[in-house]
Specification:
Elements (H helix, E strand, L loop, with lengths): L10 E7 L3 H12 L4 E5 L25 H14 L3 E4 L2 E5 L7 E5 L6 E8 L3 E3 L15 E2 L2 H4 L7 E5 L3 H10 L5 E5 L9 H8 L4 E4 L2 E8 L3 E8 L5 E4 L3 E4 L3 E3 L29 E3 L11 H22 L6
Parallel strand pairs: 1-2, 1-6, 2-3, 6-17, 8-15, 9-10, 9-15, 10-11
Antiparallel strand pairs: 4-5, 5-6, 7-16, 12-13, 13-14
Helix pairs in contact: 1-2, 1-6, 4-5
The structure holds NADP nicotinamide-adenine-dinucleotide phosphate.
The site of NADP nicotinamide-adenine-dinucleotide phosphate (NAP) has 23 residues, from helix 4.
Length: 323
């Protein structure tokens, strides 16, 4: 559907903010409920999954499925039921007037999009290390995406920072290209799922550097290495690597939300079991919510629940609720 046909004059039943698996699944459900729905995404549709090489634990795909293929299919599925997408950065939500109508501002446009209900599915942003050299060498050896940049490091030595699922999965993926990979992790054991740990332990291209942090990324015009410090002994050393992949977790990307809904101390949206936020008519789903398990399958489940709640809310406002 052409973006130009998304009018600011209409009042949409639902605006979904974020086009990862949670938002897209919400779109499948709201459009099948015949709610007028637009989904706004600031980057590429698919979010984090679209840069994930292989997903092994999404049910129904024996042997796994590629991330881009999975999200492409979910997007097409939602569009086939009538979901429309808009590319832009949501900057603000305004609840101040027009009764139940909520206003969503995009980019620097003065005129907002209007709707009855909002589903926040904005996902997370990758955390930065915050050490000298990281910013300077981003795109010159420092990367946050193995699928995008792995092939630049053919037969070179590289470092992966982090001990979670993403760090280990991507380290194994990077062994297709790199000669040697150091995984640098700040604790004496890894956080990642055991099956991923087994793959790392049995891969002779990977060397673990535990109890250690990166103090600096150095180089001339591009990365030449990292300074690593052992937290137990205080001993420092330099590793000569041409690439540094940083996978140290995520923080919610919710600057547009401010304090209009209740958030946890670490910034996630607080939701109940029906994915309702503290504000009537605003729902949230996926990785931006406070919860323990952040997986594609849980994001999709959240998306379906948020859509169901939004449906009942919008139908109640319109006097159409089936009770
Ligand atoms: P994560 O599970 O939060 O792990 C982040 C890792 O980075 C942790 O080991 C953490 O150390 C380390 N870390 C955090 N801040 C650091 C810092 N400032 N300096 C050095 N190290 C730091 O994040 P993730 O690996 O990105 O995974 C995110 C979520 O996606 C998880 O819920 C994960 O299960 C899910 N996921 C699942 C799959 C899958 O199941 N196939 C694939 C990808 C992602 P500590 O351990 O000391 O905290």
């Amino acid at each position: 559907m052409d973006e130009d046909s998304i009018s600011k004059k209409d009042i949409y039943d639902v605006i979904i903010i974020g086009g990862g698996p949670a938002g897209l699944t919400a779109g499948i459900y709201t459009t099948r409920a015949r709610l007028s729905t637009i989904l706004i995404e600031k980057l590429a549709i698919g979010g984090q999954v679209s840069i994930t090489d292989r997903i092994e634990n999404y049910p129904g795909f024996l042997g796994g499925v590629s991330g881009p293929e999975l999200v492409h299919n979910i997007e097409e599925q939602a569009k086939s039921f009538g979901m429309r997408t808009l590319s832009g950065v949501v900057t603000r939500i305004d609840l101040s007037d027009e009764g139940n109508i909520k206003r969503v501002f995009v980019d620097d446009e003065p005129e907002p999009y209007r709707c009855l209900s909002i589903i926040i599915a904005a996902g997370n942003e990758q955390k930065r290390l915050g050490v000298p050299g990281e910013k300077e060498f981003t795109g010159k050896g420092v990367s946050y995406c193995a699928t995008c940049d792995g092939a630049f490091f053919r037969d070179l030595d590289i470092a992966v920072v982090g001990g979670g699922d993403v760090a280990l999965e991507e380290a194994v993926f990077l062994t297709r290209f790199a000669r040697k990979i150091y995984i640098i992790h700040r604790r004496d054991r890894l956080r990642a799922t055991k099956i991923l740990q087994e793959r790392v332990f049995s891969n002779n291209k990977i060397e673990l550097i535990l109890d250690s942090v990166v103090d600096e990324i150095f180089g001339q015009t591009a990365v030449d290495g990292v300074k690593v410090r052992n937290l137990k002994t205080g001993e420092g050393k330099r590793l000569e690597v041409k690439g540094v992949f940083v996978f140290i977790g995520w923080t919610p990307s919710l600057s547009f939300v401010g304090d209009i809904v209740k958030r946890s101390e670490d910034g996630y949206v607080m939701v109940d079991r029906e994915m309702r936020t503290s504000r009537e008519g605003i729902f949230a789903c996926g990785d931006c919510c406070k919860k323990n398990l952040r997986q594609i399958v849980t994001a999709c489940g959240d998306g379906a629940t948020a859509a169901y709640s939004a449906q009942h809310y919008a139908e109640r406002i319109k006097g159409e609720e089936y009770v």
